[in-house]
Amino acid sequence: MNKARSNPLNTTLMHGALILYTLIALFPVFVILINSFKTRKAIFREPLALPNSESFSLIGYETVLKQGDFFLYFQNSFIVTVASLFFVLLFGAMAAFALSEYRFKGNTLMGLYLALGIMIPIRIGTVAILEMMVATGLVNTLWALILVYTAQGLPLAVFILSEFMRNVSDDLKNAGRIDGLSEYAIFFKLALPLVRPAMATVAVFNMIPIWNDLWFPLILAPAEEVKTLTLGSQVFIGQFVTNWNAVLSALSMAIIPVLILYVIFSRQLIRGITSGAVK
Fold this sequence. Notes:
Its main location: membrane. By secondary structure, the protein is mostly helical. It has helices spanning about 1-5, 10-35, 40-45, 60-65, 70-100, 105-120, 125-135, 140-165, 170-180, 185-195, 195-210, 215-220, 230, 245-275.
């Protein structure tokens, strides 16, 4: 196995495959960014060319800032994403700690029940969710989205974090109990800091679907004052005419926060993914 790893050909092929995958993944982002700085004619004439003195234009960004309430949409998306991630990480970590630390009747069954949420898309229950939100008066509120995204992210959070919680030293937790720490103190002061890489992994995996989602904002919160960034960008898409400059500019502005957060948490993400690979 070590020989295979040290084989220059295998290493070259592996790196080549990774580079190719990276280029394929970044290509749509590149196309969106460069075309957001072009005129409408240049977008259709040379979609893969870089902007030059003739094709360069900021009309798309000007349209987004003037016609659409971009900052309100951005604020709504930011609030929904941050609040949802907070509840997903908090409740997911608490549930994972309980399932890994305490042995009770139905422990395994409860874990399997939560894991089913990974395999069953939450959109299947859209009608029931909408009826529930109407009954509780949460339609056209950010809380409707926060609650749905929290429920959507919990199964994966529990599944990932429970594996890391099992690796937290029992001696450390027992020492805390001997010193008089409560179970909440053991969770927040001892267990939680040790699973930060895993929490960063869960945060990244949930952040992107929440930030980019169009389905639930369109159904649960279509009002102007609670529109998210993705839904707000749809105002530039018409039945017969689409303002592609504005659409691409709005998408570019929506991509930037995700890229920044990914760069910030990339080290923790890699640590979380690779933890446990080497014992």
